[in-house]
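Worked example 3 (structure in, sequence out).
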């Protein structure tokens, strides 16, 4: 079988384009099954490349210094590496053939090790297999956040303020979206290693529907007018829920027409203006969390290597990954462990080249006095690539976290004023809350390029903390033109805000 065969249709599209501005966009497909191939590597330079998304799609822009004699290389687990010369253009679909593993060579190389012996070698070689040297990496990170309010029931029990009636409560509930999506995309330079990082954000975008912003602003103004009309200066609000100790909020800090309120409002406006600082801080925190949660990191939840005695392992097959023979090993918990999944282990150096995992039970369950929380989802995959130094570094990370929570409790808001003679209590709003909601956050990180750096180069690297994300009301394929990213999935490509940009 000719494993490098590609159908002639792969060379009929985009011909004649200038390489200095050529953008390659295509889908990698299994020639036998006609199914898209997710997470395939598209290598177009010595240390550069992209990853196909979950739908097998990829896109990248060729650098000006690439010559027509250069090639791109497509590789995926279980398939032969395919080289395509840039003398030819690429069709919108690239078909590749599966590669048969020569089992005899695998058996000769690994001396028929048992699964326990294989896992012992994996564990013994962890420290030497994964690189923790300083490097400069070009990263693209996409975060997709989804919220779903399953129920929101608010019962008005008592209100001494006429305007805080059932109609007002219903109007508040009506503008809260039951389902919402929020996407951020960030291209950045990351300097450092697993222990320390500096982040230089090049460009960022946020994609969401802000059609409710106007309604929320109107509601805020209405609420402020009600407070001005009905509460006294120097009052404070005491918020209680059942017998749980309450906390106080000074009313003057909510109403505008006093010096303290003006100061608070200015502080809030300044925070809004500095949203880009929050954007930077959150991106860096997310990257740090993803790196620190690797299975070989200390105290990682992914303990199937470090605490391998808690899991059952089964050698189920062999495959090819980056032209290396690989064990396919399934794992599942023996008793109380948390995860199941699949390890792809190099038969020569026993490095985990890829791991797919998901939790088999809730990682956390909390329920007390009408408040509940369940940590329901912790799943993902990580792909590593071998560098010139023989050590492995992260190539692709996908991680999804999910939880559900609920509140079924009474809530009281009481206005008190210590300067009023007699009873300090002025007004009261009493509610019954029954709310249930869930959240899911998915992270995708692609490392396009990685170069070693020295300690002095790390110290001299700069961080861009003032970057401001660009708001998009719908997916714009032109936004990342000229940059290499992981292609969005269908949901992102089809996303459009209800009322567009506001």
């Amino acid at each position: 079988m000719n494993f490098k065969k590609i159908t002639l249709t792969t060379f009929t599209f985009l011909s004649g384009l200038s390489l200095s501005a050529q953008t390659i966009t295509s889908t990698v497909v299994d020639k036998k099954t006609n199914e898209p191939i997710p997470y395939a590597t598209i290598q177009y330079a010595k240390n550069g490349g992209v990853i196909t998304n979950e739908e097998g799609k990829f896109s990248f822009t060729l650098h000006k210094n690439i010559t027509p004699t250069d090639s791109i290389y497509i590789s995926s687990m279980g398939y032969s590496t395919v080289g395509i010369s840039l003398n030819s253009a690429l069709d919108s679909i690239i078909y590749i053939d599966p590669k048969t593993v020569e089992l005899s060579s695998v058996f000769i190389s690994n001396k028929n090790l048992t699964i326990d012996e294989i896992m012992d070698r994996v564990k013994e070689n962890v420290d030497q297999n994964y690189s923790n040297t300083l490097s400069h990496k070009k990263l693209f990170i996409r975060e997709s956040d989804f919220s779903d309010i399953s129920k929101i029931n608010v019962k008005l029990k008592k209100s001494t303020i006429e305007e805080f009636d059932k109609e007002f409560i219903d109007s508040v509930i009506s503008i809260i979206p039951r389902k919402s999506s929020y996407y951020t995309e960030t291209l950045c330079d990351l300097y450092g290693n697993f222990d320390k990082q500096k982040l230089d954000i090049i460009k960022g975008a946020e994609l969401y529907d802000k059609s409710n912003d106007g309604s929320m602003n109107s509601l805020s103004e209405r609420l402020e007018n009600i407070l001005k009309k009905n509460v006294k200066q120097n009052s404070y609000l005491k918020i209680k829920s059942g017998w749980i100790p309450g906390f106080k909020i000074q009313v003057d800090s909510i109403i505008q027409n006093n010096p303290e309120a003006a100061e608070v409002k200015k502080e809030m406006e300044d925070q809004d203006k500095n949203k880009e600082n929050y954007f930077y801080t959150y991106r860096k925190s997310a990257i740090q969390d993803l790196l620190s949660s690797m299975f070989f990191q200390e105290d990682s939840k992914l303990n199937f290597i470090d605490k391998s005695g808690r899991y059952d392992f089964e050698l189920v097959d062999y495959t090819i990954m980056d032209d290396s023979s690989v064990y396919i090993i399934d794992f599942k918990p023996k008793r109380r462990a948390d995860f199941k999944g699949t390890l792809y282990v190099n038969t020569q150096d026993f490095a985990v080249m890829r791991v797919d995992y998901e939790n088999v039970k809730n990682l956390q369950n909390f329920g007390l006095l009408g408040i509940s929380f369940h940590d329901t989802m912790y799943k993902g995959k990580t792909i590593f690539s071998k560098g010139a130094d023989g050590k492995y570094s992260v190539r692709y990370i996908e991680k999804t976290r999910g939880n559900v929570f609920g509140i079924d409790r009474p809530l009281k808001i009481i206005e008190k004023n210590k300067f009023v003679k007699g009873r300090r209590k002025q007004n009261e709003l009493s509610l019954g809350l029954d709310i249930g909601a869930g959240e899911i956050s998915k992270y995708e990180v692609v490392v396009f390029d990685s170069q070693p750096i020295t300690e002095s180069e790390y110290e001299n690297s700069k961080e861009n903390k003032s970057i401001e994300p660009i708001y998009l009301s719908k997916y714009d394929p032109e936004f990342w033109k000229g940059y290499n990213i992981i292609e969005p999935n269908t949901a992102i490509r089809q996303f459009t805000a209800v009322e567009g940009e506001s």
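Notes: The chain has two domains: 8-100, 135-298+363-493. The CA atoms of residues 133 and 171 lie 56 Å apart.
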